[in-house]
Specification:
The structure is a single chain. The chain is α+β, with helices and mostly antiparallel strands and 194 residues long. It folds into 2 domains: 1-30; 33-154, Jelly Rolls (Sandwich). The protein has 3 helices and 10 strands. The two termini are 16 Å apart.
């Protein structure tokens, strides 16, 4: 009987399974905030007074909104107000200063999770104190604020299911990659059997 270390196929299978399990563990138990929805921008728009934009949220426990700003030479240090509104009512509100905004930079606006946020539309309102120093926010062609929304994951079973289906779909989206690896495994098996 051969030792396990002499079987390259078994060693390869153990390594792949270990990497998969480590990824599943990290994804399930260490990553708490997951990407919910996003809208990409194409240009910067000067934030003179205030700007409002609609956002959509897919999952419950919406708790982070990432916005991209541009503060040339970090000159603008004025107070910036962020309000998240639903049906005209303020749901969450944060304040920060222009010196927290880079040239350019993503600003992470994190707040307490909103429990019943799945399927809801919100309005984001950004306001800035009057200033002669420029501060811009990244927007789409229609002037809507570009964003990435995140939610706090609580159901570990759904996270594992998402991880497995995402892994399999990404694996088989590149058939050349799969073909090369399957060919190498078959070749290794044929060499091992000789």
């Amino acid at each position: 009987m051969k030792k396990i270390t002499e079987n390259p196929i078994l060693i390869s299978a153990i390594i792949v399974a270990t990497l998969f399990l480590i990824g599943a563990f990290i994804s399930t138990f260490l990553v708490r905030n997951r990407l919910d929805n996003q809208f990409s921008g194409s240009k910067y728009e000067l934030l003179l007074d205030s700007i409002e934009s609609d956002i959509s949220v897919v999952n419950d426990n919406f708790n982070i909104l990432m916005l991209t700003f541009k503060n040339p030479n970090i000159e603008n240090q004025e107070n910036i107000s962020f309000q998240l509104l639903k049906d005209g009512q303020v749901v969450r509100e944060l304040h920060f200063f222009g010196n927290n905004v880079g040239d350019p930079s993503d600003v992470r606006l994190q707040f307490a999770p909103i429990p019943d946020s799945a399927g809801n539309d919100y309005k984001v309102k950004l306001s800035i104190s009057e200033s002669n120093k420029p501060l811009s926010v990244f927007v789409g062609d229609d002037g809507s604020i570009a964003y990435r929304a995140y939610y706090r994951s609580t159901n570990k079973l759904l996270v594992i299911q998402y991880f497995v289906t995402s892994f399999v779909s990404r694996l088989f989206s590149d058939m050349v990659f799969v073909g090369i690896w399957v060919s190498l495994i078959i070749l290794a098996f044929m060499i091992y059997k000789k």
